[in-house]
Amino acid sequence: MLRQLTIEERRFPLAAPFRISRGVKHNADVVTVAMRQGDKCGRGEGVPYARYGESAASVIEQMEQLRPQLAAGMGRDELLARLPAGAARNALDAALWDLESQLSGVPVWQRLARPQRAALVTALTIGIDTPERMGAAAARIAGAGLIKIKVDADDPAARIDAVRRAAPHDRLIVDPNESWTIELLREMQQPLARAGVDLLEQPLPANADDALLDYSGSIPICADEACHETRDLPRMRGRYQAINIKLDKTGGLTEAWHLLRAARREGFKVMVGCMVCSSLGIAPALELAREAAFVDLDGPFWLQHDHPDGVQLQGGSLLPPSSGFWGG
User: Fold this and answer.
1) Are 290 and 116 in contact (CB under 8 A)?
2) What contacts 154, CB < 8 A, 6 or more positions away?
3) What's the gap between Cα 43 and its chain centre?
4) If we measure between CA atoms, which residue out of 63, 58, 32, 55 comes closest to residue 45?
5) Is 275 inside any structural domain?
6) Domain extent for 179
7) 99 and 15, same structural domain?
8) Are residues 207 and 138 part of one domain?
9) Other C-beta atoms lying within 10 Å of the C-beta of residue 144
10) Interatomic CA distance for residues 36 and 175, integer angstroms
11) Interhelix angle for 56-65 vs 87-104, to 10°?
12) 175 is in an annotated binding site
């Protein structure tokens, strides 16, 4: 047997509840994989997401079905053909990138012909709460550079205004997580412009975004749940001006790299985002983030405890993990 695989479910308690329009998270539940070949071991992490019909059990089952082929030496291209986009493929793809870099001695950033990792400004997220509490949260991070505001259909203007007053100089992303209607979107044009919002992320349900074909607003709209893989891009035209690339949606860095290149060729702005996860889930996304107009990789900073040698936050700057953490 060429490789040995260890697949585990892990739970990271959050430092504070994380509330979005679909509910509240108290833990980050992830599935990790360690792929050992000789004295080298590649690691990856995926976040099962109920919005896409995933659970830890279903993700582990997908991985286990390919255990013999992975142990025998399956590569990333075959993995791409054998598993659909999602958390399972993401974790395995990351482990393969990591393992390949260790075996070759060539780090991922160099294999992708990218500059070596450096600090990046990341969005810091404010979950849904009362306007007063959201304003207080914004005051604590004012000056970080980029703030993401989670809202729903319940008086979003008041929440956005509260954040803007508390953080008058930061760039803003507003994320309703599919909770608005086209009528509310039209009503929100003025409040969004008044607050100087830079980007509006997935305001309408992905299955109801045909309404965007007849919508014209001053704030660019970013596809999140509506765009997973490169093959989704044609449908984004006329609806969205940006796309949010998340590795758990694309099913890993391999497909995410294809999507990034295709999106830029077609004139979409690019955001690189994440689920609430540990630094092991963030490290591969850093390989994309240097080419993104917006970076939203603050997932690990919601955890009570992350990997000690993982990413760090300095003001609003995301510092890469320690050398050797992932990807060479």
Assistant:
1) no
2) none
3) 18
4) 32
5) yes
6) 120-319
7) yes
8) yes
9) 21
10) 39
11) 50
12) yes
Residue 328: inside a domain: no
Amino acid at 84: P
Low-confidence spans in the chain with pLDDT less than 50: none
Split into its structural domains, the chain has a count of: 2
Co-location of 90 and 176 in the same domain: no
Residue holding tokens 């993700």? 59
Separation between Cα atoms, residue 305 and residue 140, nearest integer Å: 21
Q: What are phi and psi of 14, to 5 degrees?
A: -85, 150
Q: How far is CA 61 from CA 50, 93, 241, in A?
A: 15, 16, 36
Residue 114 lies in a domain: no
Residues facing 45 on adjacent strands: 32
Residues designated catalytic? 150, 246
Q: Is 210 annotated as a binding residue?
A: no
CA atoms within 13 A on the CB side of 275: 27
Q: Edge-to-edge, what's the strand order for the sheet holding 40-46?
A: 4-20, 23-37, 40-46
Q: Tell whether 170 and 58 lie within a shared domain.
A: no
Angle among Cα 30, 33, 35 to the nearest 5 degrees reads 170
Q: Is there a single domain that holds both residue 133 and residue 92?
A: no
